[in-house]
What we know:
Blueprint: H1 2-12, H2 16-34, E1 47-53, H3 65-68, H4 73-84, E2 89-95, H5 99-109, E3 115-119, H6 128-134, E4 141-145, E5 167-170, H7 174-186
Parallel strand pairs: 1-2, 1-3, 3-4, 4-5
Helix pairs in contact: 4-7, 5-6
Amino acid sequence: MQGDAHESExxxxxxxxxxxxxxxxxxxxxxxxxxxxxxSQTSVQPRTVAVFNGPNLNLLGVREPEKYGxxxxxxxxxxxxxxxxxxxxxxxxxxxxxxxxxIDWIQEVRENISGLVLNPAALTHSSVALMDALATxxxxxxxxxxxxxxxxEPFRATDYPAKVSHGVIAGLGVGSYTAAVRYLAEDTx
Length: 189
């Protein structure tokens, strides 16, 4: 019996070289698993893409359907939400017929969004004030147009917001919006 107790003490006695090797393997395993670690709930910031729309877009589906299509703005909003959902990105979707309101919205959200999609509508061709407001936005801005403004009347080719935006998507109808939302939702920079 005494021999058994002595054997058990020998088995439990630490072997420094073995413990060091085990410790190294554990540290390597932990480091390799950290690559796959999910961020903690407290460190995850909710991401929001703002989608702002300018004058007359509330009349989509009714106004010049041969140019702008039959889909109302509410369907474009739902398409944007559907694209953003798999990325766990929320959409702040708004429309106004007033330039000052649009500028106020941009200033309101500029620090709290992860990206901005803007269809400035007719303000595209005339609003230096809108361009100046966009220049203050610290995140990526993508200007969208339902139609290809470069294939229309010459005055429509002037796009003031595009001068300070990260990109422009035009002529794809609702696809202009969904491509912009997808781009910003996928963006992690």
